[in-house]
Amino acid sequence: MIAPDALAGLELARLGRRLETRDEVDSTMEVAWSLAAEGAAEGLVVVARVQRAGRGRQRRPWASPPGGLWTSVLLAPGHPEFPAPALPIVGGLASAEAIEETSGLAAQVRWPNDCVVAGRKLAGVLVESRNLPGLGQRFVMGLGIDVDVAPDDLGPDLAGIATSMSAETGRTFDRTTVLRALVLRLDRRYDELLAGATTGIEVAWLRRSSTLGRPAELKTPEGVLSGRIVGITIDGLITIDLGAGRIRRFRGEHCTLVKEIR
Ligand code: BTN
Fold first, then answer.
1. Which atom of ligand 1 is nearest to the CA of 143?
2. DSSP per position, 159-176
3. Chain centre distance of CA 70
4. Taking the complete model, does pTM exceed 0.90, yes or no?
5. Which of 185, 200, 204, 205 is the most exposed place for a label (fewest CB within 10 A)?
6. Contacts 24+ apart (CB under 8 A), 250-256
7. Distance (Å, rounded) from C-alpha 144 to C-alpha 86?
8. Which burial class, exposed, middle or buried, applies to 211 when counting CB atoms under 10 A from its CB (0-12, 13-18, 19+)?
9. Closest Cα partner for 167 from 92, 23, 67, 95?
10. Separation of CA 172 and ligand 1 centre (Å)
11. Residues forming a β-bridge with 115
């Protein structure tokens, strides 16, 4: 179990001033939302040992057995110009940085917000937004990292698709150390985002991208398109080159990467 003072001593600008630890919950997203509705301040971090009903993007379930790091962070950026589409990118980047720092694994980011190692998913990010009565717009960023999880425990659907820090290294990891690295990295990247310093984020993200410049299949409002991903921007646009001079650009929230063709 992660201790309530697990984030003590970190130099944090905005996040992590309050940490709520739980044993078993349905989803840390719901815990964060109910504390947000009670007026919790920006930067609240919720972490649970197990989630019974962990949620992933696009209403998919997120397997959350013991051994993973299941966490949600409350964000209240507070100005309407805030580039919300960049939040999943910031979350994926911070996850990759934390995984690399604590394990030495070469962690990549797969558009829009997966974190992959050797082509297999090791972490995911889910960003939810709500307008809370009397409080205004809030975001909850959920970050799930498969730390010491046996890939077999993630269910048959993820066989060969998902991996974990322990499966990739043959070692076990202290979840508190991974949480501290994650919150510190996220705090820095989020602070950069609020300061409008998006170039650094974009460059760091693109350097780690497993998607840019690669052939892929993209599910779009125009159907599934096959081509090469030639552009990704922090404000949520993805550009695919279909060949024969045909280039299409879509908003990320309208698309899904069906497959990266290796
Ligand atoms: C995805 O890749 O589909 C996003 C997965 C996000 C999972 C995390 S685990 C902590 C938080 N609580 C949830 O129920 N989901 C997010």
1. 8
2. TTTB--HHHHHS----HH
3. 11
4. yes
5. 200
6. 250/218, 250/220, 250/221, 251/85, 252/85, 252/111, 252/112, 253/85, 254/220, 254/221, 255/218, 255/219, 255/220, 255/221, 256/58, 256/218, 256/219
7. 18
8. buried
9. 67
10. 22
11. 109, 123
